[in-house]
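[SOLVED] Predicted holo structure with nicotinamide-adenine-dinucleotide

Edit: marking solved, answer below. Original request kept for reference. I posted the sequence and ligand SMILES and asked for the 3D complex as structure tokens.
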Amino acid sequence: MFKIKTYNSIAPKGLQVFENNSYMLNESDNPDGILLRSFNLHDESIAQSVKAIARAGVGVNNIPVKELSDQGVVVFNTPGANANAVKELVLLSLFVSSRNFLPAIEWTNTLKIDNSTSIPSQVESGKKQFVGNEIRGKRFGVIGVGAIGVLVANDALALGMDVVAYDPFISVNTAWQLSSNVQRAHNMDEIFSTCDYITLHVPLTDKTRNIIDEAAIGKMKTGVRLLNFSRAELVNVEHLQDALEKEKISNYITDFPTEKLLKMKNVITIPHLGASTVEAEENCAFMAASTLKQYLETGNIQHSVNFPNVYLPFTRLSRVTVAHKNIPNMVGQITAVLAQYEMNIANMLNSSKDLWAYTIIDLDSKAEHKDSIIQKLLTIDGIKKVRIIENER
Ligand SMILES: NC(=O)c1ccc[n+]([C@@H]2O[C@H](COP(=O)([O-])OP(=O)(O)OC[C@H]3O[C@@H](n4cnc5c(N)ncnc54)[C@H](O)[C@@H]3O)[C@@H](O)[C@H]2O)c1
Ligand SMILES: O=C(O)CC[C@@H](O)C(=O)O
């Protein structure tokens, strides 16, 4: 029996993944797994019982990934599952930033029905204050070409924009999807200095925090429009305010309202709706729940942000999984312990990702002395979490 604790509202399609006798949902006491969206886990104490955490979404800056890795807790996200939803809102925002239609609609709603001037006459005489721009032919810079950035770049081309993209870490998969008509920027300055519109699609990390600051803004064209559907902290808000006041940036559209932004002119804030479509919520919830279930039941890892992806069909009688540091001689020490218990290894797999590694060892017997094997393995320096899973099938 596995206990799953959930935070935020998770689409039923995801929760249904746990609808069987092996799971108890919404369990706060000693959960095995956590399923969440944007809830801030940094301020929560996480029970020792937790083996994995799945984020129904992409950004994991709400999760203390570093600390959890050190406890051998696997963190999953849902790459690409909400990318189309975000892309559609970004495309909408390109038009919103260009055509003044939000203030125009507000103005139309204030028109008074009076007998001397008809509404159509008021409209025709007042509309000149809302003249906008077209996006066709304008230069559009995409910073971060991952699941969202690639869709935004390709569709902006289809809308007639001149698209230039920057991503020094672009994945091979994404590069295959990117239209060859998207130009490659070799550094961010190429985007800053030439673009009429700039959109941010990078994760929030120590390296990307404040990538839009005074220095970056200084290089931008006067009147540039800035879109941020990634995270608030990518943009230095004081420097942004100054640039908006000086009309260096004409407007800023973001999915991340803050107290300061709400008071600023020429800022349009959206209440974090990027992934809020029925389709994206279902995709994310289903993917997150499925990867969490797979990990709890088999120890296989897919879509993890801190441990390597590993898959070994679970066909033998039992399985030992070990989350450990990526340092020499771990496998040798693990197998030496199993040998002490006269356990014969039927199959094994070891893989690493940056500082962390993961080993699966399959056995042709049910593991006896489970607790003492686990305790012994945990005394090895570098081993963070050990599980022994019986094959129930
Ligand atoms: N508004 C929303 O509701 C919403 C929804 C989904 C994602 N997001 C945010 O958008 C971000 C991107 O999402 P995604 O699905 O495209 O993620 P992704 O991981 O597929 O793509 C991120 C891309 O950024 C690139 N990158 C990383 N550091 C970079 C740097 N310094 N300069 C340039 N490129 C860099 C990576 O190489 C990668 O290609 C997420 O991290 C999340 O913060 C927001
Ligand atoms: O859960 C959401 O609504 C937003 C998720 C989004 O910020 C993400 O990073 O995927």
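OP edit: The CA atoms of residues 204 and 231 lie 6 Å apart. Thanks to everyone who chimed in.
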